[in-house]
Amino acid sequence: MAKKISVIIPVYNEGTLVETCYQRVVKVLWDTKYAYEILFVDDGSTDGNILDTLVDPHVKVIHLARNFGQQIAITAGLDAASGDAVIIMDADLQDPPELIPRMLELWEQGAHIVYGQRLSRQGETWRKKVTANLYYRLLSRLTDVRVPVDAGDFRLMDRQVVDVLCQMREHSRYLRGLSAWAGFKQVPLAYERQGRAAGETKYTGRKMMHLALDGVFSLSYLPLRLITYSGLLTLILSLFMKPHVLMFCIGLQGTVAGAVLGAYLKQVVENTRNRPLYTVVETAEKVGSSAGRLQRKDAS
Ligand code: UDP
Ligand code: MG
Hints:
Layout: E1 4-11, H1 17-30, E2 35-42, E3 59-64, H2 70-80, E4 85-88, H3 100-108, E5 113-121, H4 126-142, E6 151-158, H5 159-167, H6 175-182, E7 186-193, H7 205-219, H8 222-238, H9 243-273, E8 280-285
Parallel strand pairs: 1-2, 1-4, 2-3, 5-7
Antiparallel strand pairs: 3-8, 4-6, 5-6
Helix pairs in contact: 5-6, 8-9
The site of uridine-5'-diphosphate has 16 residues, from strand 1 and helix 2.
């Protein structure tokens, strides 16, 4: 039997771009020797039905009950995927589907994870480029997990890695960090990140900030350790400090400690609640009637 590839594409209000994306991805997969499925995860889009008229038995659309965010949408796709390898990509074609064959080659050569590494980013603001650049480097300093720099969610993961990720049910999910945490053999695939094929970014500043914080607080205990060290330091220095300086130091330390502890406490609370990560309205199989159905003989 041919090996199967699952392609997961999270979608939030991408309009007709989803069709363009589908066409490009299918064209690439069609020419491979693999069986495949394409899982579009509709992350609570409000701009109409996604791929409503499409008939292709390789495609499923998982409609989430509201907007849960890209990381959770990808998780819903990972839970549903049945492939021997899973590829994650955005719907806006910033990550070229034409790189998929090379990813598959590297996978066949033994890589468990093939991650897209951005050489450049076209069509993005200098602010986004600078903050992303600094963030990736800061994160890699803060954690012992080897999180590749300049790599987003565009990646291939072997079934073994996907199974580990599916076991992790934590709510604050920074998937590229969690997949790095899992270990395994990770291989970069350098590429030029394109501008969006259409539309605007769906990542508001708030969503971006949450993702960045999730990355730090789910992969690093260093902020927590720094509180301990600064407490010890204040204790020692207090022997030599004047009372008003001591009060100032304790106040400052309390403020910083509060913020850091709050971030970890948020994770404790959301994980002990034990709610499901997402809710699904329906999973639409695009099988339809056989008339006009796209046919491809899977090598089996
Ligand atoms: N996306 C999503 N849910 C969200 C925000 C984004 O599923 O709440 C999808 C979006 O449709 C796209 C991918 O996640 O396919 C990446 O989003 P976007 O391109 O807006 O992010 P950027 O590339 O600007 O960081
Ligand atoms: Mg994008």
